[in-house]
Design brief:
By secondary structure, this protein is mainly α. A two-stranded antiparallel ribbon has the order 1-5. Helix 6 runs antiparallel to helix 7, helix 10 packs antiparallel against helix 11 and helix 15 runs antiparallel to helix 19. The longest helix is centred in the N-terminal third of the chain and has 25 residues. It is found in: Cell outer membrane. Belongs to the SusD family.
Length: about 575
């Protein structure tokens, strides 16, 4: 498809820019005595708009790295309350918080994010000294604005994954340039992210079209800036940024939530930051090979689907929906008066996100009677971002063409509601935007609950199976915030890479783990009574997702990944 062009890397350009990056860091030693006149160098590149556009394409290409938008998201999700895994899978260490500074995901995510940062830095640095006559009107500012938006996004992920970042705004020229201290989240925000996004907001268009569809926009930059303020508990500025996105009229919720997780509806009205993948580009390349290497071409495909999908249908089900999430979807009752609910008893969010044993419709083109699995305590499997809706099995070469939606409007609605509650306490405004999301899902809205339950609504996150009932509470600021934290964001955004950062910024991970461990222990004690019965239909055993996590997790040690050991070895400032 034509709109993939911006996100699918230009191979020769990618290699050229990476070559410039690698050699530019060694100017203090004269390794080369002769120059091949046919080689692309810092001196011969950066002369035309095509050069800058090609370099910018490699920055977009870094979004495709698996640690950023692919299978590497699984470790983040396993650490939270919505997913578990089996003890024989490598991510089990993340479920139990026993990983360390040499663990693969810790090292890979840092490397992937800084590759994106260095690519962006090249474009930003070189465009300052470029001949202005080579650019069309506004083109220079647009290229820089895109690079700065992407750099801000990469730095946002570094800062909120590792608790800060090593700040580089220029391409290092000497070994000494790599020895830079670790800066706090606040320093990264003030020195890099906020200035980058303010520049981008002033210089990017609201929309792109044609072959440029998929580039970052004013809305992308504004949404990221809102998240920066939200994470920093600057509630008023966060609400302002989110509301400007909402009021722009550029975005709207899709009619069907599933449109955000398939190939047929890419770059739709809800999409604000989307990472493109292709199942057909470079056929034969394994989905794990994103960027070019000396021995393998980049696949341009995602390997996320194979990590999520059910074992019997070409996947590994590396992450499994927690019993908490499974029951949360069950308890989120459909609104029978909503016209989208004609024959279904399960919500559209459930259908798009998980596959329980009693699922409605088909799964990998099979009816329920034909399906295998759901044994050994596995009550459900992940559907979101898998190819269950159009393939009989996942690709044998770990290739998926489903784009990763990093930011979408439903997320903005919920973050806006959170910011409003914390800034002004306007419960009605918050419920309004929560209910936009709930209406699209086809479930009973908070407004409907309040109207039929004497101005109260149920605490849907409380296990009905374990506790027998769910308390009804009034719509206070605190209760609606709890609903956002424990119900709405989990149901709407499960397995999209947000949950762990949410738990950390709210400071509730420990209490959530403790609560879910108590539910887990109840199910173990009462297993003979609940086995193979509604709502979860668990058989053979209770999976112990929180047995170790509730004990091992400590905020000071586990909220953020440690700085990778290899970085401490090469950057002396990280050991101070």
């Amino acid at each position: 498809m034509i709109h993939r062009k911006i996100n699918i890397k230009v191979k020769l350009a990618s290699l050229a820019i990476c070559t410039v990056l690698l050699t530019s860091g060694c100017n203090d030693e004269d390794f080369l005595t002769q120059v091949n006149p046919n080689t692309i160098t810092n001196q011969t590149f950066w002369k035309t708009t095509k050069d800058f556009q090609s370099a910018l394409t490699t920055v977009y290409g870094a979004l495709q790295f698996q640690s950023i938008s692919g299978n590497g998201l699984i470790e983040d999700e396993i650490m939270a309350d919505l997913g578990g895994t089996e003890s024989w899978y490598r991510p089990y260490a993340y479920r139990n918080f026993t990983f360390n500074d040499a663990s693969e995901a810790v090292t890979n995510k840092w490397a992937n994010l800084y590759t994106g940062i260095f690519r962006a830095n090249q474009v930003i640095e070189k465009i300052q000294s470029a001949d202005p006559s080579i650019f069309a009107a506004g083109e220079k500012e647009s290229i820089e604005g895109q690079a700065r938006t992407l750099r801000a996004f990469f730095y946002f992920l570094v800062a909120n994954t590792y608790g800060g970042a090593v700040i580089h705004t220029e391409v290092p020229q000497t070994k000494a340039d790599f020895n830079v201290k670790f800066s706090s989240i606040a320093e990264v925000n003030s020195q890099i992210i906020i200035p980058d996004l303010e520049f981008a907001k002033a210089n990017l268009p609201e929309t792109w079209s044609g072959k440029d569809l998929g580039r970052v926009t004013w809305g992308t930059a504004t949404s990221i800036l809102g998240k920066v303020y939200l994470f920093d508990k600057q509630w008023g500025p966060a609400a302002t940024e989110f509301k400007s996105v909402i009021d722009s009229g550029v975005y709207s919720l899709t009619a069907n939530i599933m449109d955000n997780f398939d190939e047929e509806h890419e770059f739709n009205s809800e999409s604000i930051l989307e990472v493109a993948y292709s199942a057909t580009e470079n056929p034969g390349a394994n989905g794990s090979n994103v960027d070019d290497t000396p021995y393998a071409a980049g696949a341009e495909a995602s390997n996320l689907a194979v990590g999520l999908a059910q074992l019997n249908y070409g996947g590994f089900n590396t992450i499994l929906p927690s019993y908490f999430l499974h029951e949360l979807y069950i308890n989120d009752a459909v609104d029978v008066t909503n016209p989208i609910n004609t024959t279904n008893l399960q919500s559209k969010r459930l259908t798009a996100t998980i596959a329980p044993k009693n699922l409605e419709g088909q799964y990998y083109l099979r009816n329920v009677a034909e399906l295998k699995g759901w044994g050994y305590g596995q009550s459900a499997y992940v559907k979101k971002y898998t190819n269950w809706y159009h393939l009989a099995n996942e690709d044998g070469n770990s290739r998926s063409g489903i784009n990763c939606r990093q930011i979408r409007l439903a997320d903005i609605y919920l973050m806006y509601a959170e910011a409003v509650l914390n800034s002004t306490g306007d419960v009605n405004e918050a419920i309004k935007y929560i209910d936009f999301v709930r209406t699209r899902a086809g479930v009973i809205t908070l407004k409907q609950y309040l109207a039929t339950n004497s101005n109260t609504f149920p605490q849907l996150h409380i296990s009905k199976e374990v506790h027998g009932n769910q308390p009804l509470v009034p719509p206070t600021k605190e209760n609606v915030l709890t609903h956002i934290h424990r119900v709405e964001r989990p149901l709407e955004l499960a397995f999209e890479g947000h949950r762990w950062k949410d738990l950390v910024r709210w400071g509730i991970a420990k209490s959530v783990f403790t609560e879910l461990l108590a539910d887990e222990n109840w199910r173990v004690k009462n297993f003979t009574t609940i086995a193979n019965k509604a709502p979860l239909y668990i058989i053979e055993r209770i999976r112990d997702d929180f047995k170790n996590a509730a004990v091992t997790y400590t905020p000071a040690k586990n909220d953020y990944f440690p700085i990778p050991s290899v970085e401490r070895q090469t950057n002396s400032q990280l050991n101070n």
